[in-house]
Amino acid sequence: MAGRSVLVIAAHPDDEVIGAGGTIAAHAAAGDSVYIAILTEGASVQFPGDVGKVALKKRQAEEVAEMLGARELFTADFPDQRLDVTPRLEVNRFVEAIARKVGPNIIYTHHFAELNADHRVAYEAAAVAARPFSLPSFERLLCYTVDALTHAGHTPPRFNYYSDITGTLELKLRAMRVYETELRDYPHPRSLEALRHAASSAGAAVGLRAAEAFESVLEVRRG
Questions:
Q1: Going from the N-terminus, what domains does the chain have, and what CATH number goes with each?
Q2: For every residue of 52-116, which 3-state class applies, written as one string?
Q3: Mean pLDDT, 10 residues at a time, over the chain (223 residues)?
């Protein structure tokens, strides 16, 4: 799969690591060109009025992208936890412009059943950008989840695609440490121990030591 173009779309800084950090690093190590798009500034709700934290999150996202081997990071800086009231056309246009620029073969984004409204909007924007008739490079749209119970009673993800991150799990965890304000103590799902357990559990489901699980929602096999 070397030589692929890969686009990872996340609502907030740290979502890209939790959902697909090991896979991002694996793609980069295989020679693929990986691009990350983060839609919101990810700090204004958690730290109201603290513009320093907004700038910190951007610096952290840049550091993480470099650590994982991404070729370029795109940030929109839409208001945190307000994507559902942001004009949808603005969000879609941001994502579509990136997709046209990088020509992704594979797109990773949030699962469409996640409880967080920002996550659902990110999925919808990714799905719009992934329309095969407007994105000739497109081959596969894969959805990751950020928290184990993120669907909160709705139809849970139907994992049908597993990425082996045995060789990149430790890098994923080091990248997550960069987002220090997001880390929690175990057994919180955003603890390093919980992320390690989740990778081991996903891997064991398919005979791997560590994996990230995705739901493939659209695939196009091109001749």
A1: 5-219 (3.40.50.10320)
A2: HHHHHHHHHHHHHHHHHCCCEEEEEEECCCCHHHCCHHHHHHHHHHHHHHHCCCEEEEECCCCCC
A3: 88 97 98 98 91 94 98 97 97 98 98 92 98 96 84 79 98 98 94 97 98 97 85
